[in-house]
Amino acid sequence: MGDIGDGTGTSYPGALDTDGTQESSTTDVRADVPNDQNSAIIALQTAVGTDPKGTAADVKTFIQAEHDTDGTHGAITPSTVTVSTVAPATPVINVLYKDTIVKVWVDFNGSGTIAINNDVNVSSLTDHGTGDYTVTFATDFAAANYASIITSGSNSHQLNTSAVGSQRFSTTNASGVNEDTGNVHMIIVGDQ
Quick one: 59 and 111 in the same domain? Predict the structure, then answer.
């Protein structure tokens, strides 16, 4: 390690520098400037480590690999992911399993004239009355034993009927009475 200010230069990036020899002067103000600069240099070296450029030609190239020149994120390359059919008891890292991927999600307005705000794999909604809805899937599930999560502005949700091509449910208030709610969200995971 080099000691900043000892006249021998720097050992960075091979090793982090130190600042064992603090500048001393008859006035603290004069000594503070180089001491603060030395501390800043050591803090930067510590933050970026002894190999700040990694395998890139220089630090700028390394940083710009995932950041644009304005500091925003550029194209980030995801890790290699394998897709498999059935999840084992102990899942493997970087493997997506067909039966654990979200197959349906929907965000809809459940009050007044119901309408889909956004969705994946939903072909239609049916309003059966106050707080009683059916979400029909564009692609059916293999069986009706999928897992669904429903959230809304209501107190609770009651699953009424799960079929391979749709799910009927109700949104209820604290007294258990059906009520319409503005924002309803559903996510379903299962085998298709």
Answer: no
Q: What is the DSSP letter of 73?
A: B
Of 49, 77, 105, the residue that ends a domain is 77
Q: Provide the domain limits for residue 123.
A: 96-189
Tens-digit pLDDT profile for residues 79-120: 666 777 777 888 787 788 887 889 999 999 999 999 999 999
- CA 30 distance to own-chain centroid: 48
Residue 4, pLDDT above cutoff 90: no
The answer to pTM > 0.70 is no
23, 8 in Cβ contact below 8 A? Answer: no
Structure tokens at 98: 């067909």
Q: What is the pLDDT of residue 24?
A: 61
Reference 131, options 118, 114, 146; nearest CA is 114
Structure tokens at 97: 């399993």
The β-bridge partners of 23 are: none
Q: In the chain, how many domains are there?
A: 2
- What totals of helices (H) and strands (E) does the chain contain, helices first? 2, 10
Q: What ranges make up the beta strands (E) of the chain? A: 82-84, 95-97, 102-109, 115-120, 122-129, 132-137, 147-152, 156-163, 166-172, 184-189
